[in-house]
Amino acid sequence: MSLATVGYQPVWHERLLSMALSPEERPDALQIVPDHFFARPAALEALAERYPLLLHDVGCSLASGGPDPQRLGRLKDLVERVRPVAFTDHLALTRAPSGQIDLGHLCPCWYTEDTLQTVIDGVKRLQDTLSLPVALENIATPFELPGSLSEAEFWSALVERTGCGLLLDVTNVLLDARNRAEDPRRRLGELPLHTARWVHLAGGRADGAYWIDSHSEPVEEASYLLLREIVGRAPVEMLIVERDSHLPSLRELVAEAREAKRRWEAA
Amino acid sequence: MAILAADERARQQFLLEPEAWLLARGVPEPARRALRALDPVALTRYAESLLDKRTSELLSAVPHAARLFPPLGPLYRRWLARHPSPSRDDVLSPGLAEALRALPFLARQIEPEWLAEMFVYEVLSRCSRRDGQPRWLRARWPQHRLLQQVSRGDIPLDPDEEPRRYTFP
User: What burial class does residue A197 get, using C-beta atoms within 10 Å of its C-beta: 0-12 exposed, 13-18 middle, 19+ buried?
Assistant: First the structure.
C-alpha cells in the first residue's frame, strides 16, 4: 500500500494538529523540509506523533561535497527526535565546493567519476550519521553538462555502491522530456526504478515553450499517465504531492494525493 | 558552475570569452570542455530563475515593507545579481537570511525614512524571533504601532517621530 502524502507548508501547521481536522483534510503522511524546523524542533515532534514523516532536504549539496558538519548535526538532532521513515535530498549541488557561493536552488551535477565519488561519500556520511534509508531525487535539469558518464551509468553506480534509493520525481521527468522533445518513458528507463520507494508529483507551468518545475499548479493528467508507467517496476510506498506557490487549501492538496493513490492502486 | 549561475559579471565575461574566462580560473580541460558546451540561453534562464526565487523568498520574509515599497523586489534582485549569496550556517529562512545580508544596502534605498526604518525593524525582529539571537534598533518612529497599522490595512502618512530603543526578540 502506498501513502497519500503531501509536502508540509507552515501555513497548515495548526490545522494538521487540530482535533477538528476532517478525514478529507488528513494526509496519510507528510513530507518535511528540515529547514522549517531547525529553529523549533519541538514543533516537529507534535507532527511526528500523528503522521509518518519523510525528511526532504534541499541543502546537502551532495554533488559538491555533501552536508557540512553543522547541518549534519542539525539533521541528526531532528532525526533522533522524530524518527522519520527516510531522509531524502537531491542529486544536485546547491553551493560551490569552496562555500563561496550558495545558489539557494538546485543545480545539475556533472556526471563524472569524481562527482560520483563525491556523491557516494556524502550519501554514506548521511547513512552513517542518520541511520536511516537515504534516497536522492532526480531534479528537473535546466541545462546539461556533458560528462564522462551517462545519467543512467551514474545512477546505477550510485545505488549499487551506496544502497541509497531513488526519490522519483515523475513531473521532473515529464517536464525535462518536454523541454528536450524526448519521450519521458525513455528517461524513466534510465533511472533505478527498482529503488524508488518514494514518488513526487507536482504541477509545472510553461514559460513560452519552456516548462518550469514551478510546483505552482495541480498535478496534470500527463503526470498521472507517466506514473502508470512505473507500476510493477517501482516498490512505491509514498506518493507525495508537492505545492510551493499558489497554495490551495489543505483539503485540496490532500485530495490530489488521494487521487494519485487511487490511480496507483487501480493500475 | 555555481559562480556562472550566481554572479552576473562573471557570467557576462564567460559568455563573451568562455575559454579565456575558464583559463584565467585554472579550470582543467575536461571541465572546460563541459562548460564551453553550456547552452548560453539555458544558462541565462537558469540564472534568472535563481534571482526570481531568492527575490520571492525575500519579499515573503518582509511582507509589510514589501507591500509599502514595491521597488524593494527589483532593487534586491539587481543587487543580488552582483552580490551572490555566500554559504551560511544559521537557522534563518533563506528569505530572512538574505534580508539581513542586504539590509545595509536596501535600507539606504527605501524612502521615506520611516519606511526604511520599518524595513530594518521588520528584518531584525523576524530574524530574532526565528533564531533567538539578540538584536536591537534605535528607532525614530514607533515601529511596533506603525506595523500594526499596516497589518490592519492602513498606510501611515508622515507619522510623528517618537524615538525609542527596541530589543529583539
Answer: buried
pLDDT band of A43, cuts 50, 70, 90: very high
Determine contact, residues A191/A170, Cβ cutoff 8 Å.
no
B89 close contact with A: CB closer than 8 A: yes
Contact A71, A55 (CB under 8 A): no
pLDDT tens digits along B13-31: 999 999 999 999 999 999 9
DSSP run (H or E) holding A89: strand A86-90
Distance from CA of A169 to the nearest CA of B (A): 19
Q: Which residue of B has its CA nearest to A40?
A: B130
Cis check for the bond before B169: say yes or no (omega within 30 of 0): yes
Report which of A85, A63, A59, A91 is spatially closest to residue A73, judged by C-alpha positions: A59
- Shortest alpha-carbon distance between residue A189 and chain B (Å): 25
Contact B6 A101 (CB under 8 A): yes
List the single residue in A39, A101, A107 with the smallest CB-CB distance to B86. A101
Query: Could you read off the pLDDT of A231-256 as tens digits, one per residue?
Result: 999 999 999 999 998 999 999 999 99
Beta strands in chain B (DSSP E): 135-139, 164-168
Q: What is the ipTM of this complex?
A: 0.90
Rounded distance between C-alpha atoms, residue B131 and residue B12, angstroms: 37
Q: Which residues of chain A lie closer than 8 angstroms to B51, CB-CB?
A: none
Contacts of A104 in chain B (CB under 8 A): 50, 53-54, 57, 85, 94
Question: What is the DSSP code string of A1-61?
Answer: --EEEEE--GGGHHHHH-TT--GGG--SEEEE-GGGGSS-HHHHHHHHTTS-EEEE-S---
Burial of residue B149 (CB within 10 Å: 0-12, 13-18, 19+) is middle
C-beta pairs of A183-189 under 8 Å, 24+ apart in sequence: A184/A226, A185/A226, A185/A229, A188/A226, A188/A229, A188/A230
d(C-alpha A44, C-alpha A83), whole Å = 11
Nearest CB neighbour to B46, from listed A70, A71, A142? A142
Torsion of CA A176, A180, A183, A186, to 10 degrees: -70
Taking a C-beta distance cutoff of 8 angstroms, is the pair A207, B44 a contact? no
Instruction: Tell me if the bond preceding B112 is cis, omega within 30° of 0.
Output: yes
Enter the pTM of the model: 0.94
Query: Using an 8 Å Cβ cutoff, are A133 and A76 in contact?
Result: no
Grid cell locating A164 = 541509497
